[in-house]
Design a protein that fits this description.
With about 475 residues, this protein is of the alpha/beta class. It has 16 helices and 16 strands. The strands form two sheets. A ten-stranded mixed sheet has the order 3-4-2-1-5-6-7-10-9-8, sandwiched between helices. It has a six-stranded parallel sheet with strand order 13-12-11-14-15-16, with helices on both faces.
């Protein structure tokens, strides 16, 4: 392998000083590129009146970034449209929120073609290309059409849904067929891999040639589960930083004589925030003796404000959080703080470290790195308790969390009570097992496993027609 070329929708290399906010993909990709010399390619985040394909390059935090500007119509149809109004809700089991618009589909195809046309001249003969996430599923197909025969891998960071959901998508066959232009497709969990295989077997008359190898559309494709992790060592160092310590001290002072319950999520309907608020409300209603012993902090930075579904959920959460405080507050205490603001990762490390409970309850999630960061930030001698949705990809690795059904307020409330009253020996035992998993299955293990599989001799170079 000459270089590793990472491709994602947005290019956002971390600065390395802790200023990064919520979101683990940027950190994970930066860690990969620091190990292998290469380039991170994608959208600059800027729009221009007319697409030119002009490439912008810079080195940030030890990572070389190559970016391209898009047109405003590209942003509307490709990003706000097909990616976030069509694929995102559908892949998170919200077909009721999915918008099927041919203009979105055309914009998605157009931008993937533009990405390919801009990227192809940068690709050397021995470079390996690693494409990330649902925005760029057809990119390998577009690169192959331009004559690129390098090894190309794809990693899906969100769930792959059951095939009964995928078939709701117009032209679903063409989308899945384009995935067979990759050499390797990776998923967060074995469950998502199996769902993809089920689609291929049922909708493409495919077959499993051997474990981890599918035949479909006249081609062979390697598939596998590669659960993403965090840079555990780096995050542990971050918890000892001066900024993290100040934030931990601030939160400890603000919650003196009380237990802090913390949730950190991008404001999104897939994160189960409404259900989480209702679960906390149920906890307060059912446990009057514990009410004044807790304070819940929910950090939910606003995202995708141009998408109507996100505007609606923000309004509902504002109403619900106000209702909870109005019902249960006293003159000297309020049970709930709801904040729509980004925080630096080192500040979040301090908040996690001050918390007795980490409440991570998505309705559906690819992995969820907040759960792993919460565990990594705990005091080994007096750790907090992780409450985790059984529908998060991380649940398979983190069985010693308190696993809950996020749709059930009673289930969430019961887990909150159990976490609050849990004795220290049990908290330490559970934390040790979780932390061992976070350390062992970290971002380095994820990166090395995927790159090794992509460059292995068993993965055929494309195009590889099967007769």
């Amino acid at each position: 392998m000459n270089r590793l070329i990472v491709v994602s929708n947005r290019v956002n290399p971390p600065s390395g000083d802790g200023e990064e906010t919520v979101g683990g993909l940027a950190m994970a990709l930066a860690a990969a590129l620091k190990e292998y010399s290469g380039v991170w390619f994608g959208w600059s985040g800027r729009t221009v009146p007319k697409f030119t394909g002009e490439l912008h390059t810079e080195t940030v935090g030890g990572v070389t970034a190559a970016t391209v500007d898009l047109e405003e119509v590209d942003l509307d149809e490709y990003y706000n449209g097909y990616a976030n109004k069509t694929l995102w809700p559908l892949f998170h089991y919200r077909a009721d929120l999915a918008a099927f618009d041919r203009a979105f589909d055309k914009g998605y195809t157009r931008v993937n073609r533009r990405f390919a046309e801009t990227l192809a001249p940068l690709v050397g003969r021995d470079d390996v290309i690693w494409v990330h996430d649902y925005h760029l599923i057809p990119l390998a197909k577009e690169l192959r059409a331009l004559g690129v025969t390098n090894r190309i891998g794809f990693f899906l960071h969100i769930p792959w849904p059951a095939h009964q959901l995928v078939v709701n998508l117009p032209r679903h066959r063409q989308l899945v067929e384009s995935m067979f232009d990759y050499d390797l497709v990776g998923f967060q969990t074995a469950e998502y891999q199996q769902a993809f295989e089920e689609y291929v077997l049922n909708e493409a008359d495919g077959q499993v040639v051997r474990p981890g190898c599918l035949k479909g559309y006249g081609r062979l494709l390697e598939v596998g589960a590669y659960p993403i992790g965090i840079d555990a060592a780096d995050f542990a160092r971050m918890t000892r930083s001066s900024r993290a310590r100040r934030m931990r001290d601030l939160m400890t002072a603000a919650t003196v004589f009380r237990h802090l319950i913390v949730g950190v999520d991008r404001l999104d309907y897939s994160k189960g925030l409404e259900e989480r608020f209702l679960g906390f409300e149920h906890f307060l209603a059912q446990n009057p003796d514990l009410r004044r012993e807790v304070l819940m902090l929910q950090i939910a930075p606003v995202s995708r404000e141009a998408v109507e579904a996100y505007q609606e959920i923000r309004g509902r959460l504002d109403t619900l959080s106000g209702r909870i405080n109005a019902e249960y507050s006293d003159v000297d205490w309020a049970p709930f703080r709801y904040v729509n603001k980004n925080y630096r990762r080192d500040e979040l490390a301090g908040i996690y470290g001050a918390a007795r409970v980490g409440l991570v309850t998505p309705l559906r999630d690819g992995m969820n790195l907040v759960a792993k960061e919460f565990v990594a930030a705990q005091n080994p001698e007096d750790p907090g308790v992780l409450i985790l949705s059984r529908f998060a990809g991380a649940a398979r690795q983190m069985q010693d969390a308190l696993l809950v059904n996020p749709n059930s307020p009673e289930d969430v409330a019961d887990a909150l009570k159990r976490a609050i009253v849990m004795e220290r020996p049990e908290r330490i035992r559970r934390w040790r097992t979780l932390f061992d998993s976070v350390q062992r299955e970290d971002v380095t293990a994820w990166r090395d496993a995927f790159v090794a599989a992509l460059t292995a001799r068993t993965v055929p170079l494309k195009p590889a027609l099967v007769v």
